[in-house]
Amino acid sequence: MAFFxxxxxxxxxxxxxxxxxxxxxxxxxxxxxxxxxxxxxxxxRISANHENNFxxxxxxxxxxxxxDLQAIDRFIKENNIKYIINCAAYTAVDKAEDDVDLCYKIxxxxxxxxxxxxxxxxxxxxxxxxxxxYDGTANKPYVETDAVNPQSIYGKSKLDGENELTKxxxxxxxxxxxxxxxxYGNNFVKTMIKLGKERDTxxxxxxxxxxxxxxxxxxxxxxxxxxxxxANKFIPGIYxxxxxxxxxxxxxxxxxxxxxxxxxxxxxxxxxDQYPTKATRPKYSVLEKAKIKSTFNLSIxxxxxxxxxxxxxxxxx
Length: 317
Ligand SMILES: NC(=O)c1ccc[n+]([C@@H]2O[C@H](COP(=O)([O-])OP(=O)(O)OC[C@H]3O[C@@H](n4cnc5c(N)ncnc54)[C@H](OP(=O)(O)O)[C@@H]3O)[C@@H](O)[C@H]2O)c1
Fold this sequence. Notes:
The protein is of the alpha/beta class. It has one domain: 3-Layer(aba) Sandwich (Rossmann fold), CATH 3.40.50.720. The chain contains 10 helices and 12 strands. It has helices at 8-26, 38-47, 69-78, 100-120, 153-168, 188-198, 215-231, 249-259, 290-296, 303-316; strands spanning 28-33, 54-58, 81-86, 124-130, 172-177, 180-181, 201-205, 209-210, 213-214, 237-240, 247-248, 266-270. The strands form 4 sheets. A 6-stranded parallel sheet has the order 2-1-3-4-5-10, sandwiched between helices. The chain binds NADP nicotinamide-adenine-dinucleotide phosphate (NAP). Residues 33-34, 36-39, 60-61, 65-67, 87-89, 91, 106, 110, 128, 130, 158, 177-180, 185 line the site of NADP nicotinamide-adenine-dinucleotide phosphate (NAP).
């Protein structure tokens, strides 16, 4: 390709063409699915800071239904996608117990679709999974090689999704996360703030232990993994990511109310038995994060700090 002619106007045009050409060589195309959800929205929010390296294509079910293999394949081809970040999922944990087929269609079959389309087009997948693949009987943080034993339809469908994805596309990174919240969407933090303002008392489960995850932190971690993959190499496998620390839903609620300045609501601790739900949750789902930290050179904020940041943002909206 000739870029310089000696003619000033033509040279300027050629220079622009050259820059676009080089930019496109450097920039990698990223497909984000389920982009209107909590995690997808957080990735969208920080994507502008990474436009030198990555061109993002944000899609949710209206633009790209991941249960449609042909549509995914076409999208990847047409847009020369190098990485897929799958934020799409069926996440209504209790509803899933009755809505089994749709839950499996999205969490298992669609994950397989992404794997097939990625392999066909030489793309790589970063997929998000859950602490609900564990049964919660452990008494120390779960490592990625610990036995899985999901207790709910949601957990089972997510585990099947991990397995189907890896079979279809061994070049996949799977990140198991937990207790996700964000300024976007509906989540525990927003619900506790709302109820804390409306009610005098609130009963919250104190015998389920885990770690919250600010979706903004997970979004940053995923971008860092992309940066790492471009600078070094893509290292497939299963990884854990949550914020640092350990808490219960009860203590989490106390922290939410403290940060949100809610003093008029008394929070009572109750047991899981006193608050029956359709789906069984793990009693203990703290995730050990040494692998993701050392592989990708990540540091992870403590849950209290990340909660504080989210609540400040929520209060300023
Ligand atoms: N939320 C948690 O506490 C939690 C905990 C552990 C792990 N995770 C995992 O973390 C990931 C992100 O969770 P999140 O909380 O950000 O989820 P979310 O807010 O529920 O977002 C999921 C998005 O996927 C979309 N979607 C559903 N079906 C789709 C389809 N067929 N094609 C394309 N998009 C589709 C949803 O659209 P609709 O809203 O229209 O259905 C929604 O916008 C998921 O893999 C989830 O399993 C979440």
